[in-house]
Design goal:
By secondary structure, the chain is mostly helical. It has two domains: 113 residues, Cytochrome Bc1 Complex, Chain D, domain 2, CATH 1.10.760.10; 160 residues, Cytochrome Bc1 Complex, Chain D, domain 2 (Orthogonal Bundle), CATH 1.10.760.10. It has twelve helices and four strands, in the order H-H-H-H-E-E-H-H-H-H-E-E-H-H-H-H. The strands form two sheets. It has a two-stranded antiparallel ribbon. A two-stranded antiparallel sheet has the order 3-4.
Length: 335
């Protein structure tokens, strides 16, 4: 609740009201990362590019930023520095504005939190390994050499971006928006309507995306089909995508602090996009996928699971019964 100030009241009442209001805001600081806020300073602010040093390290940081913006040009199927990607998407297509947008799959704290355990591979991974993980899955490509100039540049940029983030910590806005889960399963029919109305103009009626003028890369990435992100990618999960969609889509209409779609709409349209029976996509055979079933995200669509819920419910919901079961049985709730 928000306490409103009545200027007709006595001065003591005004002071008490202001005190209570400040206390209310302070008590809710730890919820900023999971809810829409109304002020720009409620999320982490990345460093200004003017702080990149004018030396060899600075050159590498700037090259890393350039690689995220024009990934396909440098390391795509026709790359000038290597041919590692299996499609012409750029890192920027998902990690918005070179990983600097709150709730936009950003890199605010990425460098500060690696090495880290990754459940999908069931091992502790370094940051360069995780970069390659992204190249292999969403980009359906082959890994870069860990000591290549391009890998060093990308990691150098991520290190600079996290330069004011405590080691091992998260910062507000570096995750995904928390959603209120509908009591029903995702509605694919409603998702199709939302896609036609708000998504097809950029991503295409058939999810094919939109190329730039010379077809060297995408302005808007494909969402399914031969050149879409691979099955098993993080974005192939309904809730993972919905948390991103809620904060950022439709393009130019939504932002983290002014969402356009409701939570249920974000879930519905995400479910429509990643429905494999409607929308085929690349699939890598024998790719590692959560051999430790206890750490599977609740919306992962391939069993077995540490619970009795079906693969369909894990993918499409309703999700709250799964979450409640995991909490009751001391199982992690991972999104």
């Amino acid at each position: 609740m928000e306490l409103k100030l009545n200027l007709c009241k006595s001065k003591p009442f005004i002071l008490l009201t202001l005190t209570l209001y400040v206390a209310f805001i302070a008590c809710n600081e730890n919820t900023i990362d999971t809810k829409s806020a109304s002020v720009a300073d409620s999320v982490h602010t990345p460093p200004d590019t003017n702080t990149i040093p004018n030396d060899e390290l600075g050159d590498m940081i700037r090259y890393g930023k350039e690689l995220l913006r024009n990934t396909a040009y440098y390391i795509g199927p026709n790359g000038t520095k290597g041919k590692y990607l299996g499609n012409k998407m750029n890192c920027n297509n998902c990690h918005l504005k070179e990983g600097t947008v709150p709730y936009g799959l950003n890199f605010f704290s990425t460098h500060a939190r690696y090495p880290q355990y990754r459940g999908r591979e069931n091992k502790v991974m370094t940051l360069p390994e995780r970069v390659n993980n992204c190249i292999e899955r969403p980009h359906n490509g082959t890994p870069m050499p860990l000591d290549s100039k391009e890998m060093v540049a990308i990691v150098s940029y991520m290190r600079w971006l996290a330069s004011n983030v405590p080691v091992g910590k998260n910062v507000p806005g570096d995750g995904g928006m928390t959603l209120a889960y509908p009591k029903r399963a995702a509605d694919l029919g409603n998702g199709a309507k939302i896609y036609t109305l708000h998504c097809a103009s950029c991503h295409g009626n058939n999810g094919e995306g939109q190329f730039n003028g010379d077809s060297s890369t995408y302005i808007y990435p494909p969402l399914w089909g031969k050149y879409g992100f691979e099955a098993g990618s993080s974005m192939h999960r309904v809730l993972k995508m919905a948390r991103f969609v809620k904060a950022n889509m439709p393009h130019l209409k939504a932002s983290w602090d002014k969402p356009f779609l409701t939570d249920a709409e974000a879930i519905d349209v995400s479910a429509f996009v990643v429905c494999d029976s409607l929308h085929p996509r690349p699939q890598k055979e024998a790719a590692p996928s959560y051999s430790n079933i206890k750490v599977k995200p609740i919306d992962y669509d391939q069993g077995p699971y540490p619970d009795s819920f079906s693969a369909r419910q894990h993918k499409y919901g309703p999700y709250q019964p799964i979450i409640d079961y995991h909490k009751a049985h001391n199982l992690p709730v991972i999104f």
